Amino acid sequence: MSTTRMVAIALVAALTAATGCTIDAARHVPSRQQVRAAEPSTSPPSVPDPAAVGANELGVVPVLMYHRIVAEPETVYDRTPEAFRAELVRLAKEDYVPVTAASYADGDFDVPAGTHPVVLTFDDGDPTQFSLDPAGLPADGTAVSIMREVAEEYPGFGTAATFFVNTDPFGDPGGRRTLPWLVAHGMEVGNHTANHTNLAQSTSDQVRQDILTQDQAIRAAVPGYSPATLAFPFGAVPDEPGLALHGVVGPAEYRHRGAFLVGANPAPSPYAADFDPAAIPRIRSQDATGADAKYCSTVWLDSLAAAPSQRYTSDGDPDRISFPATSQQTAAARFASRTATY
């Protein structure tokens, strides 16, 4: 067990003793700040000078969008297992580190100095993305199985990912077997509406109801879990964009901290002034051929590799936001106290 996890559990025990309330450590994880406050006083970890690693925490972040992983693609949204694996290996070799959609939207992620966050998102809950074999392990050839294999080969890469699901995801009624497994293994389950509804063609009441229905279905499958993000089916934004983040239906409500569009271009840093949590762009995973290839992952990753100063590069300190003084990006006002230029 890691030192941080041990401290977290100890903090939960202390809070329980102090308040007399029962707290489930598996569901109520203390914040990073609470854990640090409870840790024994030690010298802060050494981090390199931001300039030495070319830190730019106002740079763009690729949020990649996947659908089916199949041997014979039928549309530009499909990827073969070989192409999917190759893209993950490329990301690992280019020092990208996966973070969940919620962590990105919150600006609450900690990746090593000199590395770049990437968000891996999967829409529609297709069984080629994830299913469990009779032994309760990810089925061979699924996206999750391939991710775990690549993470084993490149240990710093990790398996953080976000799955935006509809009713009965992965062919699993209610998602009661699959969704708890994903959450237990550090992955995120997001809302994709109950019926893959075109929200741009729906009334505000219909938008609220379809989002809430799926929110409640995810909560029922994973007790104690709160979906934090949503992906728009078809990339269709409702007439009231704010309904993607919050809605009330009778006594019930849902709240999301980020809403994601269909593939187009890299997303802004979550610390940037132009970051909009209700309209976060994604990049469609695709080779540099076929329809709309200029919007695909291969082209954008090539572009960022050729102009590395444009991408988000971590300074290694999660409490500081470093970027060059020459940056054309501006940090959001609420982060002003944490910014550091060089």
Automatic annotation (TrEMBL):
<feature type="domain" description="NodB homology">
    <location>
        <begin position="114"/>
        <end position="240"/>
    </location>
</feature>
<keyword id="KW-0732">Signal</keyword>
<dbReference type="InterPro" id="IPR051398">
    <property type="entry name" value="Polysacch_Deacetylase"/>
</dbReference>
<protein>
    <submittedName>
        <fullName>Peptidoglycan/xylan/chitin deacetylase (PgdA/CDA1 family)</fullName>
    </submittedName>
</protein>
<dbReference type="InterPro" id="IPR002509">
    <property type="entry name" value="NODB_dom"/>
</dbReference>
<dbReference type="GO" id="GO:0016810">
    <property type="term" value="F:hydrolase activity, acting on carbon-nitrogen (but not peptide) bonds"/>
</dbReference>
<feature type="signal peptide">
    <location>
        <begin position="1"/>
        <end position="25"/>
    </location>
</feature>
<feature type="region of interest" description="Disordered">
    <location>
        <begin position="32"/>
        <end position="51"/>
    </location>
</feature>
<dbReference type="GO" id="GO:0005975">
    <property type="term" value="P:carbohydrate metabolic process"/>
</dbReference>
<dbReference type="InterPro" id="IPR011330">
    <property type="entry name" value="Glyco_hydro/deAcase_b/a-brl"/>
</dbReference>
<dbReference type="Pfam" id="PF01522">
    <property type="entry name" value="Polysacc_deac_1"/>
</dbReference>
<dbReference type="GO" id="GO:0005576">
    <property type="term" value="C:extracellular region"/>
</dbReference>
